[in-house]
C-alpha cells in the first residue's frame, strides 16, 4: 500500500469517527432535553409546604456552661500533661 493511500484512509477513518461522535452527542443532548421537558410537564415539582413554626429553644443554664468549661479545662490539662 502506498503511504498516500494509507494517509487518506486514516483521514477518512478520522472523519467518520469524529462525525459519528458528533452525531451521537448531538442526539444525546436532544434526547436529554426532550426527556427533561416531558418529565417536568407530567411530573411537576410539588409546592413546598409551609414550614411549621419552631418552638423556642430552651435557654442554656449557668450550670451547663460551668460543666462545659470544666470538661474543656480538664481535656486541655490532660493534653498538656501528655505533651510534657
Structure description:
The chain has a domain at about 1-45. With about 80 residues, it is mostly helical. The chain contains two helices and no strands.
In short:
The protein has helices spanning 3-42, 62-83. The chain is an all-alpha fold and 84 residues long.
Keywords summarizing the entry:
84 residues, mainly alpha, 2 helices, elongated
Please tell me the overall pLDDT: 87
Number of helices: 2
User: Main β-sheet, in a few words?
Assistant: none
Number of strands: 0
Radius of gyration, CA atoms, in whole angstroms: 34 Å
Broad structural category: mainly alpha
Assign a percent range to the helix content.
over 70%
Distance between the termini: 81 Å
Gross morphology is elongated
Secondary-structure element order, N to C: HH
Low-confidence stretches: none
What amount of the residues lies in strands?
under 5%
Ordered list of secondary-structure elements with their pairings:
Layout: H1 3-42, H2 62-83
